[in-house]
Amino acid sequence: MKLILIFSALIGASLCLETFVGHQVLRIKTKNEEEVKQLQLLESLEHLQLDFWINPSAPALPVDVRIPAASVQPVKAFLESQGIQYSILIEDLQQ
Question: Is this structure's pTM higher than 0.90?
Answer without folding.
Answer: no
